[in-house]
């Protein structure tokens, strides 16, 4: 490139810049404007007893692939949801250097998740902390032609805290807690 700088479109000496909406172009009229969120993720249905939570997605456009990162738990699996229905590859991996997990999904047959909303995937987990969170700025969504879709990530979720004696964490002290505790003791699951 002989002394010039490559721009975000890979053009030596080009004028394209990456704006606040993560768009790479040379049109200054659309820089620093309100970004239109086309895909949004949130953490829902956290069940610490079962060790599961759902990642819920609202998407205004077709999604051909996604990746995001989660922290605050040990992920043991991902399954089901829209990703399981439309994609043939959904996986997770622990990234030791950041102490978080990356979840990625796509299709090798050009299948896409249609615009709409629903559970993207169910995450199985263990060893959770005080909060389960998306790693900030970790999401990437792709449209069917490989262009980035602007997305956002929801808030952290704090697993429910239980009162002393509320073994099943339902907010009530009753016979259900007693039966669960007896079963745990008899099964050597109580520490």
Q: Give the fraction of residues assigned to helices.
A: under 10%
**Largest beta-sheet details:** 6 strands, antiparallel
What is the overall pLDDT average? 86
Number of strands: 13
Order of helices and strands: EEEEEEHEEEEEEEH
- Count of DSSP-assigned helices: 2
- Name the quaternary structure: single chain
User: What general outline do the C-alpha atoms trace?
Assistant: elongated
Description:
The chain is mostly beta strands. The protein has 2 helices and 13 strands; from the N terminus they run ββββββαβββββββα. It has helices at 81-86, 175-186, and strands at residues 17-18, 24-25, 39-47, 52-59, 65-71, 74-79, 89-95, 100-106, 116-126, 133-134, 140-142, 148-149, 151-153. The termini are far apart.
Strands, helices and their partners?
Layout: E1 17-18, E2 24-25, E3 39-47, E4 52-59, E5 65-71, E6 74-79, H1 81-86, E7 89-95, E8 100-106, E9 116-126, E10 133-134, E11 140-142, E12 148-149, E13 151-153, H2 175-186
Parallel strand pairs: 3-13
Antiparallel strand pairs: 1-2, 3-4, 4-9, 5-8, 5-10, 5-11, 6-9, 7-8, 11-12
Notable traits:
mainly beta, five-stranded mixed β-sheet, six-stranded antiparallel β-sheet, single chain, 191 residues, 2 helices
Summary?
With 191 residues, the chain is mostly beta strands. It is built from 2 helices and 13 strands, in the order ββββββαβββββββα.
